[in-house]
C-alpha cells in the first residue's frame, strides 16, 4: 500500500528539487521500487503547465482537500 495515491494533490518541499520548491501538483503515476523498498518508490507529479517530474515521498506533502 502506498502512502499517496494517483490524483492526490501535493506541495513540493525544500530539498534537492530546487526549481519546484513550493510548487503544487497532482500525482500522475506511481513507480514502485524494484526491490520493494516503499521509501524509494518514485511518484510522477504533474504540474499546472503539464510538466512532469519524479519525486520520492520525502520531497512533498499531501494537500488536504477543502470541503
Task: Give a short overview.
The chain is mostly beta strands.
Mean pLDDT: 89
Q: Give the CA-CA distance, first to last residue.
A: 26 Å
Strand order of the largest sheet: 4-3-2-1-5
**In terms of per-residue confidence, which ranges show pLDDT below 50 for 5 or more consecutive residues?**
none
Count of helix runs? 0
Strand fraction: 35-45%
Helical fraction: under 10%
Count of individual domains: 1
Q: What is the count of β-strands?
A: 5
Radius of gyration: 11 Å
- Structural class, from secondary structure content? mainly beta
Order of helices and strands: EEEEE
Q: Main β-sheet, in a few words?
A: 5 strands, antiparallel
Coarse morphology: globular
Task: Describe how the helices and strands are arranged.
Layout: E1 9-12, E2 24-31, E3 42-47, E4 52-55, E5 60-62
Antiparallel strand pairs: 1-2, 1-5, 2-3, 3-4
Descriptive overview:
The protein is an all-beta fold and 67 residues long. It has one domain. It is built from no helices and five strands. Strand 3 (42-47) and strand 4 form a beta hairpin. The radius of gyration is 11 Å and the shape is globular.
Provide tags for this entry.
single chain; 67 residues; mainly beta; 0% helix
Amino acid at each position: 500500500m502506498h502512502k499517496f495515491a494517483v490524483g492526490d494533490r501535493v506541495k513540493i518541499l525544500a530539498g534537492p528539487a530546487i526549481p519546484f520548491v513550493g510548487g503544487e501538483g497532482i500525482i500522475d503515476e506511481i513507480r514502485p521500487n524494484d526491490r520493494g523498498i516503499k521509501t524509494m518508490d518514485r511518484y510522477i507529479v504533474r504540474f499546472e503547465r503539464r510538466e512532469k517530474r519524479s519525486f520520492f515521498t520525502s520531497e512533498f506533502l499531501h494537500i488536504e482537500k477543502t470541503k
